[in-house]
Amino acid sequence: MMVFIPINGENMKTMTIVGTVGGQFAQSLATCLRDCRRLGELVMDVNDLARLIPLGQLLHPQVTQLSLTNCSSTALPSGNDFLATLIPNLRACFPNVNVLRWLGDVDRNLSRSNTRKGSHSSENDVDAMYVHISGIRIENRAGERLELDWLLVR
Fold first, then answer.
1. What domain of life (predicted)?
2. Distance between CA 65 and CA 99 in Å, rounded?
3. In angstroms, how far apart are the furthest CA atoms of the chain?
4. Cβ contact 25:49 at 8 Å
5. Which DSSP state fits 9?
6. Cα(97)–Cα(99) distance, integer angstroms
7. What is the pLDDT, as a whole number, of residue 77?
8. Domains of the chain by residue range
C-alpha cells in the first residue's frame, strides 16, 4: 500500500481496505488516505476507524460515503463508547460524509433507552442524537435506513 498509493492514489475513487490494519500502521494509513485526492468512497473495518479517530486529524475531505464492516476478530478497546461519539468523529475526520453504510450486524429492537442499564433517554438526549446525525444517512448494504442504536459493534 505504501508503494502503490503514492503512485496511483491520485486516480482512485473507491478504496476497500480488506482485513484490519494493525494499530502501529494507523498513522501510515492516514497519510496514505490523503494522497487519494479523488477518493469518494471508503470501505474499512470499524476497528480501523477506531484506530484512526484518535489521531485527531482530517483524514479525507472528499469522501462522501463511508462503509464500515465489523468483521475483525478483535473487539474495540474496552471503555470505548464508539457509537456515542461516532457521528461527531466522522464529521471531524471526513467532513463531507453524507452516507454511512453499515455492513455489520444490526438489531432493530435496540433503542437508546433500553441499551443503558436502568436509565431512559430524555427528550434532550434524543434531540441531541438527531442533531449529530443530521446530514449523515445511516443505511445497510441494501440502502435501507438504519438507526444509530441498531448497529451492533463488537
1. Eukaryota
2. 5
3. 54
4. no
5. G
6. 6
7. 56
8. 4-150
Question: What pLDDT does residue 37 have?
Answer: 87
Number of H helices, E strands in the chain: 6, 5
HSE-CB at 12 with a 13 A cutoff on CA atoms is 23
φ, ψ for residue 15 (rounded to 5)? -135, 130
Domain range 4-150, CATH class: alpha beta
Report the chain (154 residues): mean pLDDT per 10 consecutive residues: 84 87 80 87 89 80 92 63 80 90 89 49 45 76 90 80
pLDDT of residue 48: 84
pLDDT given for residue 65 in this prediction: 96
Integer Cα distance of 35 and 149 in angstroms = 33
User: 0.85 exceeded by the pTM?
Assistant: no
Residue 54 has what pLDDT?
82
**59 and 42 in contact (C-beta within 8 Å)?**
no
DSSP 67: E
